[in-house]
UniProtKB/TrEMBL annotation:
Name this polypeptide is given: 3-dehydroquinate synthase
GO biological process: amino acid biosynthetic process; aromatic amino acid family biosynthetic process; chorismate biosynthetic process
Source organism phylogeny: Bacteria, Pseudomonadati, Bacteroidota, Flavobacteriia, Flavobacteriales
GO cellular component: cytoplasm
Pfam families tied to this protein: DHQ_synthase, DHQS_C
Annotated PANTHER family: 3-DEHYDROQUINATE SYNTHASE (PTHR43622), 3-DEHYDROQUINATE SYNTHASE, CHLOROPLASTIC (PTHR43622:SF7)
Names of the cofactor(s): Zn(2+); Co(2+); NAD(+)
Principal subcellular localisation of the protein: cytoplasm
Biochemical pathway: Metabolic intermediate biosynthesis; chorismate biosynthesis; chorismate from D-erythrose 4-phosphate and phosphoenolpyruvate: step 2/7
Family indicated by similarity: Belongs to the sugar phosphate cyclases superfamily. Dehydroquinate synthase family.
Domain of life: Bacteria
Length: 347
C-alpha cells in the first residue's frame, strides 16, 4: 500500500499506533538524518520507544558487511519480532533496510519512507530488497513487501539535482515499457526540477505497482521493469569497481540507450524510432565514457544478470514505444555492435 503523507504525518502516527510495535528502528543515512528525520520526529505522535540507526550514504555500503553490522545492532537492541523498522532514504536505504528487516529473526515488519525521486517512483515499491556482492548488483536479497510505503514529496526539496535526474531515468523507463502518454508527458518537460516532475510521480508509482501486482516474483511481465538494466547494471558495477560511482539512474539511462538500440537491431522498432527515443534520453543525461571497460568484461558482468537462465543472457527490450518485452535472446554480435554504437555515438 502507498500513502501520500499530509504535512503533519497523521497517517504515519495512526499506522504506528494501530500496529503497536515493541520498538521503532529508524534507519537513515547522514543526509536523510539531517534533512528528513527531524521533520518526521517533530510530527510523529507516538509513545513507542525508538532507536536511530545511521549508516554512511552510498552504494559502496550496500553490502554484506553493512547488513551484518545492522543485524548486530538489532540484536544489541534486543529487537523482537514485533519491532518495526522505518527505512528513511533512497533506494540504498530501502534495499538494505528491507533486506536486513526481512531476514533478521526470519523477518520483522518494515515500512519505507522514500526520500529520493528514485525511491518514490521505484525502489520503495515492489518488495525487491537486497545487497551487492562485490560489484555484482543486488545479487543477494529477498522478495519482501514493505508493510506500507509513506511518500512525502516535500523531501525532494533538499535532493541534489543529479539524484533527481537519476530518479527521472526510472520514470522514463516506465513510460517506455508501459505507457506512451507517460513518456510523452515526461519528455515535454523543458527543465527538470522537483516542481516540473511532481505532476508525473503518481503515474510512475502506479505503473510500477500495477506490474508488481501481476508478477511479484518476476516470472514474466515484471522483467519489463528491468529494461535498461542488463547493460545498466554492468556499467554501474564497473564504475563502482573503479571508484568513479555514477547514480543508478544514470547507469540505467546508458543502459536504456543501449537496449533501445538493441531493440532496433533485433527488429522490434525502426531505426527512426530508436533514434527518436535515444535523442530524448540523451537530452536529459550526461554521457559517460566507457572506453576504460573492455567488451568482454561488460559481457562477463551481464552474464550474472538475474533474468538469465541456462547460461544465456536474456534481455528486456522494447516491443514498441510504450510496451516492453522480455526473455529476448540476442547474439553476442549484436551485443558487441551495441557497445560499439554507444562508444561511438556522438553526444
Ligand atoms: N528495489 C528496487 O526495486 C530498486 C529500484 C530501483 C533502484 N534500486 C536501487 O536503489 C539504489 C539507488 O537509490 P537512490 O537513487 O535513491 O540512491 P541513494 O539511496 O544512494 O540516495 C542518493 C543520495 O541522496 C541522498 N538523499 C536521499 N534523500 C535525500 C533528501 N531528501 N535530501 C538530500 N539528500 C538525500 C542520499 O543520502 C544519497 O547520498 C541502487 O542501489 C539501486 O540498485 C532498487
Ligand atoms: O522492480 C523491479 O523489478 C525492477 O527491475 C526495478 C529496477 O529499477 C531496479 O533497479 C531493481 O532493483 C533491479 O532489480 P534486479 O533484479 O535487476 O537487481
Ligand atoms: Zn533500476
Amino acid at each position: 500500500m502507498i500513502s501520500f503523507l499530509d504535512s503533519d504525518f497523521t497517517q504515519l502516527s495512526l499506522y504506528i499506533s494501530n500496529l503497536k510495535p515493541s520498538l521503532l528502528l529508524f534507519l537513515v543515512d547522514e543526509n536523510t538524518h539531517e534533512h528528513c528525520l527531524p521533520t518526521i520526529l517533530a510530527n510523529l505522535e507516538t509513545k513507542v520507544q525508538f532507536e536511530i540507526i545511521e549508516i554512511e550514504s552510498g552504494e559502496e555500503l550496500k553490502n554484506i558487511q553493512t547488513a551484518t553490522q545492522l543485524w548486530e545492532i538489532l540484536a544489541e537492541f534486543k529487537t523482537d519480532r514485533n519491532a518495526l523498522m522505518l527505512n528513511i532514504g533512497g533506494g540504498v536505504i530501502t534495499d538494505l533496510g528491507g533486506f536486513v528487516a526481512s531476514t533478521y529473526k526470519r523477518g520483522i515488519k518494515f515500512i519505507n519512507l522514500p526520500t529520493t525521486l528514485l525511491g518514490m517512483c521505484d525502489a520503495s515499491i515492489g518488495g525487491k530488497t537486497g545487497i551487492d556482492l562485490g560489484f555484482l548488483k543486488n545479487m543477494v536479497g529477498t522478495f519482501a513487501h514493505a508493510e506500507n510505503i509513506f511518500v512525502c514529496t516535500n523531501f525532494l526539496k533538499t535532493l541534489p539535482f543529479s539524484e533527481l535526474r537519476s530518479g527521472f531515468a526510472e520514470m522514463l523507463k516506465h513510460g517506455l515499457i508501459a505507457d506512451e502518454k507517460h513518456w510523452q508527458d515526461l519528455i515535454s518537460i523543458k527543465e527538470l526540477s522537483a516542481e516540473s516532475i511532481a505532476p508525473f510521480i503518481k503515474k510512475s508509482m502506479e505503473i510500477k505497482e500495477n506490474v508488481v501486482e501481476i508478477d511479484f516474483k518476476e516470472q514474466n511481465i515484471r522483467k519489463t521493469l528491468n529494461f535498461g538494466h542488463t547493460f545498466g547494471h554492468a556499467f554501474e558495477g564497473l564504475f563502482l569497481e573503479q571508484k568513479t560511482l555514477i547514480p543508478h539512474g544514470e547507469a540505467v539511462a546508458m543502459g536504456m540507450i543501449c537496449e533501445t538500440y538493441l531493440s532496433y537491431l533485433e527488429e522490434f522498432i525502426s531505426k527512426e524510432k530508436s533514434e527518436e527515443i535515444i535523442k530524448q534520453i540523451k537530452r536529459f543525461f550526461p554521457y559517460h565514457n566507457i572506453s576504460n571497460f573492455k567488451d568482454e568484461e561488460i559481457i562477463e558482468l551481464m552474464k550474472n544478470d538475474k533474468k538469465n537462465t541456462s547460461g544465456q543472457i536474456k534481455f528486456s527490450l522494447l516491443e514498441r514505444l510504450g510496451k516492453g518485452n522480455f526473455d529476448i535472446k540476442v547474439s553476442q554480435e549484436n551485443v558487441v555492435k551495441t557497445l560499439h554504437f554507444y562508444r561511438n555515438y556522438t553526444f
